[in-house]
Amino acid sequence: MHLFRPCRILFAACVFWAAVPAQAQTTIVLYSEAGQRPQSYEENGIPKGAYIDNVNRVLKRIPEFKVQIRFASWARVVEEARNGNSAGVLGVYYRPRERPYLNHSRPFYSEEVAVHCNRDSIEGRTFHRYPDDFAGLKFGNQRGYLAPGPRFFQLAREGKIQLVEGHEFHDLVKKMLVQEIDCVVNPTVVINEALVTLEAQGIPERMRYKSRRAMTIKTETVHIGFSRKYEESHPELARFRQLFDQAADQ
């Protein structure tokens, strides 16, 4: 029994892994954000990263299922799950109120989230309270990315923080380096990896040091967000979700 639709051109990759013969397994499709190094990315047709490694650790305990990963932009990943076109999203933070269309798995990973800013933009400023101490600055954020938190988005609605939305996080980091925006929010490891990638793509090395970690704001747990709408017509997903939670707790 298969729980996925045929691969579409919009996805960067369709990748499989399995521990037992395919004919004995049920396939689950999960979407993950493309280019989220070092957490989740595709390289030579193979999914890699900390999210993948930790999910694989759990999947080894539930061999009756096989997982297929597709990569797309974060906004598209979330939208496919919302519309019931995928079984779920690999790599969401726990946001049941903001994303009621997802059932969140047990956490399989945790990571520190920080604010990084252009050094010149924050020269002479000190930061103790997030996000209030960042009022007056311009932030870049991916569409649908909720890590900055409810208070941040409230300040953005009030005009106390300027918000520039984009699809690709690397593009936002580049804008931060050249001071088109002032700050970004993401796990520090992701920001540092983006800086390395941009340098490899031709950004002068000196530009990398324009980035400064202004404040570590919280630790987030990482989950699979299972599509409620998809599960309505694919009840096998409920069994996978139950088994994944049991295995994640072991």
TrEMBL record:
Organism equals Cupriavidus campinensis
Name the Gene3D superfamilies on file. Answer: Periplasmic binding protein-like II (3.40.190.10)
Indicate the secretion signal residues.
Answer: 1-24
The organism's place on the tree of life at top rank:
Bacteria
| Protein name as annotated | Transporter substrate-binding domain-containing protein
Alphabetized, the UniProt keywords read:
Signal
